[in-house]
User: What shape does this take?
Amino acid sequence: MKELVRPSRLAPGARVAVVAPSGPVAEERLQAGLDLLRGWDLDPVVAPHVLDRHGRLPHLAGTDADRAADLQQAWCDPRVDAVLCARGGYGAQRLVDLLDWDAMRAAGPKVFLGFSDATTLHEAFAVRLGLVTLYGPVAAGVDFIKNARAQEHLRATLFAPETVRTLGSTGTALAPGRARGVTLGGCLTLLATGYGTPHTRVGARGGLLLIEDVGESPYRVDRALTQLLRTGWLDGVAGVALGSWDRCGPYEALRPVLADRLGGLGVPVVEELGFGHCEGALTVPFGVPATLDAEEGTLTLDAPALR
Assistant: This one.
């Protein structure tokens, strides 16, 4: 697992493009998110198809071709310093193969922010562009719009990343120990369903895996983890940090599943690190070397997420 290239931090006046690679976006939430970004002295621009609805597939924000074009155009625009997802949902898997990765690589590094369904894109940005990406609140998300903790941590990550190099857990060690590695991860279901596809890593060897999910019952979490175990994707992972498991059943029912499937890896496992589908979600970078300390309940980055 190699350390990836860190894009530059944002400065006041930076232009940020908002795209919708997955599900449809509520206009009122989008406008609230844009107002917040303007309040940070950023210059948000909205991609042409962000508010589209697919004619036959209402779970998609427009056609695959249009969503892919928005993302690629935003990334390749030299005036844009960061590309932010408007929301998650579903759909990134459908467009990732439509992107011109050579053109996007030639555009150079910039900030990419998204979570949940954007896990597919985080993997692709790592594999195809070799870039550090940010897994955090989306521009039209309720948490971004209404939660001060989520806002403040994201803002610090974007503008002053050296101030948020340590993330602390509110839980306990699911498995003890201390480990170093390069961060990767995202939504468990997307990692499991992405295995074996283009633009996805062949495994997590040498990495610190950060995973979370939403709306999956304990047996489905079991199934996804078992898939990753059976394929060997988790072979050699250095450590695991668990985020939120919103609507994944009572945590007392899910915790034994996590312990059973991850405890046999023989690596430290930290729970409740505060990222993902939770209130006040923290922003975590993927592609940065870090230390995971299960007893202390901390993930400490070797370097700031952004240069």
Remarks:
- The radius of gyration is 18 Å.
- The longest helix spans residues 218-231.
- The first strand starts at residue 15 and ends at 19.
- The chain has a mean pLDDT of 97.
